[in-house]
From TrEMBL:
It comes from the Eukaryota. The lineage of its organism: Eukaryota, Metazoa, Chordata, Craniata, Vertebrata. It is a multi-pass membrane protein. Belongs to the major facilitator superfamily. Proton-dependent oligopeptide transporter (POT/PTR) (TC 2.A.17) family. GO terms for cellular component: apical plasma membrane. PROSITE patterns: PTR2_1 (PS01022), PTR2_2 (PS01023). It comes from Cyprinus carpio (Common carp). InterPro entries: MFS_trans_sf, POT_fam, PTR2_symporter_CS. Keywords: Membrane, Peptide transport, Protein transport, Symport, Transmembrane, Transmembrane helix, Transport. GO terms for biological process: oligopeptide transport. This is Solute carrier family 15 member 1a. The keyword Nucleus does not apply. Pfam families: PTR2. SUPFAM superfamilies: MFS general substrate transporter.
Length: 644
């Protein structure tokens, strides 16, 4: 019997393992897909990213309604997984630029088509992943009886481990393992839908508010709880269950701020990594791959916390309750953003000095074989060596020199035959707009080999490019006579010098916070929910994530802080303030046993308690086990007889 339970629990966690890899694997590259394929700017890419994540955590409400009122948890998981898979296929197709790239230049000709297809795919994915979110955790919890609280806590820890382990394995095995959940169908404990519980809850709350408003006069006696004003129409058991849910939902109010910080590791932190070096010597780590540090740390920290840290704290006599763990988790997340701010300050020191909105910058590259004197104004001159570069920043535009008013960055390649160049010699200038920002993809830490050909003459040139660097190569006419040795390299922007390893502390802090906050919150939500409202409360828990991402979206669009490190510190400060508020709310919270409260209400109403049903069920299971044991003894006796 125990092995049977382990078997079907295995099916559930493996399904979650595969689903989470599918989701996180796509989400890891999503912001860079927006930034470099659809060519959106940082703020728009961040906003759409968090809008998608918010939608993923709003749709659990729909999933809870479908599961509780129509299909049940098992069928809801199956059907919405199909919607989910269609969304992933649609999203994958949207990334194929050849569909609209008629001239095969590597750039889509119709961005509207790709944007529309990717948005459709993301909506389907949000419906699929969000719809099954409240069902899988609650469905797993349904497999345990109320006296198996220790096993239930272990399940949630393993469940969360599988969420993060899923993002570390290859997509090749995902289609094979996804059918594992269906394979365990005959073993699961499947609770039937109990009607549209969400709608019943809303109607009951609405009636209580309306009835209280009707009897707002002081002539009517006060009632213990405002939900008691629904007693005239609704069952006391339902009212008691709603009271329990509302008590927990009130506690959820400050929680979105944690997710506001946490989910930025897939947007702002990834963009931060694009300005850093990912050269670890033995391997090159790309910016979006840095996110794998989180699941790796989860796999390490969850068992350490669950089996070592938390029991050790308990043995020390400290009451480290679930709500206290969540508070500490929020503080760890705040520290992670302080760490991210410190890293950003170091990055800013290495970034090139681009002209401000009130400045202009002139770069002059001399490709002539002699030193040239460039006249900027009667009092300003640049003396440039042969194949040299000079930068000049001024508070005015260079319209007198470039004949291009209001162009902030221009590069002038001097190809004339004069020692002194003034604004009258513009016919000898080759001018083009210079780069205005540091390369953001961070994927250029590679060696390139170039072969230059002219008729039968050729030579090979090799150069290793650094992360985030920008170069100009000056090639003289004598390049073939000296085997490319005369090529002059101009480093327009230095390579990224701040290493991605500096992000590891912030990932460690945010992951520690996640283990204390998210894993504990998942267990807390399930333990404090009435039996028929566990999906509802799970959906409420996931909605805090949606609200958190909406906050990021608002800040990204409206905040516009001049420095990224200042934005990190703003979020950290807000979370510290919210964690203080949450700790005060947690101090006054009283933990409940939903089954005990329901049994008490049933007893007051003269209903048959559920415990009697459970005892009957347990007796039937014991009788079945005894019969199985007797059957085994008979088989053993028969085998012994045959052996003789």
């Amino acid at each position: 019997k125990k092995m049977k339970k382990i078997c079907y629990i295995f099916f559930i966690v493996v399904n979650e393992f595969c689903e989470r890899f599918s989701y996180y694997g796509m989400r890891a590259v999503l912001v860079l897909y927006f930034r470099y394929f659809l060519l959106w700017d940082d703020d728009l890419a961040t906003s759409i990213y968090h809008a998608f994540v918010a939608l993923c955590y709003l749709t659990p409400i729909l999933g809870a309604i479908i599961a509780d009122s129509w299909l049940g948890k098992f069928k809801t998981i199956i059907y919405l997984s199909i919607v989910y898979a269609i969304g992933q296929v649609t999203m994958a197709i949207s990334t194929i630029h050849d569909i609209t790239d008629a001239n095969r230049d590597g750039t889509p000709d119709n961005f509207t088509f790709h944007i529309a297809l990717s948005m459709l795919g993301l909506i389907l994915i949000a419906l699929g992943t969000g719809g099954i979110k409240p069902c899988v955790a609650a469905f797993g919890g349904d497999q345990f009886q109320e006296h198996q609280s220790r096993q239930l806590n272990t399940f949630f820890s393993v469940f969360y481990l599988c969420i993060n382990a899923g993002s570390l394995l290859s997509t090749l095995i995902t289609p094979v393992l996804r059918v594992v959940f269906i394979a365990g169908s005959g073993m699961y404990v499947k609770t039937d839908p109990e009607g549209n519980i969400m709608w019943s809850v809303c109607k009951c709350i609405g009636f209580a508010i309306k009835n209280r408003f009707r009897h707002r006069s002081s002539s009517y006696p006060k009632r213990e709880h405002w939900m008691d004003w629904a007693n005239e129409k609704y069952d006391k058991l339902l009212i008691a269950q709603i009271k329990m849910v509302l008590k927990v939902l009130f506690l959820y109010i400050p929680l979105p701020m944690f997710w506001t910080l946490f989910d930025q590791k897939g947007s702002r932190w990834t963009l931060q990594a694009t300005t850093m070096s990912g050269d670890f010597g033995a391997f090159i780590l790309q910016p979006d791959q840095m996110q794998t540090v989180n699941p790796i740390l989860i796999l390490t920290l969850v068992p350490i916390m669950d089996r070592l840290i938390f029991p050790l704290i308990q043995k020390c006599g400290l009451n480290f309750s679930p709500l206290k763990r969540m508070t500490v988790g929020m503080l760890f997340a705040a520290m992670a953003f302080v760490s991210a701010a410190l890293v950003q300050i170091e990055i800013d020191k290495t970034l090139p000095n681009f002209p401000s909105s009130s400045e202009s910058q002139l770069k002059v590259v001399n490709t002539y074989s002699r030193t040239l004197n460039v006249t900027i104004s009667p009092n300003e001159h640049l003396l440039i060596e042969s194949f040299g570069v000079q930068l000049h920043t001024s508070k005015h535009t260079y319209s007198t020199i470039s004949r291009m008013p209001n162009v902030k960055n221009i590069i002038i390649n001097i190809t004339g035959k004069y020692n002194s160049v003034t604004d009258t010699d513009l016919s000898f200038f080759l001018q083009e707009e210079d780069v205005k920002s540091k390369p953001r993809e961070g994927k250029n830490a590679i060696r390139r080999d170039f072969v230059l050909r002219h008729g039968e003459q050729w030579c090979e040139f090799s150069r290793k490019f650094g992360f985030g660097a920008s170069y100009t190569f000056l090639i003289p006419s004598t390049v073939f006579s000296d085997d490319c040795e005369s090529i002059t390299e101009v480093e327009d922007m230095k390579p990224n010098s701040v290493h991605m390893a500096l992000q590891i502390p912030q990932y460690f802090l945010i992951t520690t916070g996640e283990v204390m906050f998210s894993v504990t919150g998942l267990q807390f939500s399930y333990s404090q929910a009435p039996k028929n409202m566990k999906s509802v409360l799970q959906a409420g828990w996931l909605c805090t994530n949606a609200v958190g991402n909406i906050i990021v979206l608002i800040v990204a669009e409206l905040g516009k802080l001049p420095k990224q490190w200042a934005e990190y510190l703003l979020f950290a400060s807000l979370l510290v303030a919210v964690s203080i508020i949450f700790s005060i709310m947690a101090y006054f919270y009283t933990y409940i046993d939903p089954a005990e409260i329901e049994a008490q209400v049933r007893k007051e109403q003269g209903l048959e308690p559920e415990e009697m049903e459970k005892e009957t069920l347990e007796m039937e299971e014991k009788d079945e086990d005894q019969k199985n044991e007797q059957g085994k003894e008979s088989i053993t006796g028969l085998e012994q007889h045959e052996g003789k």
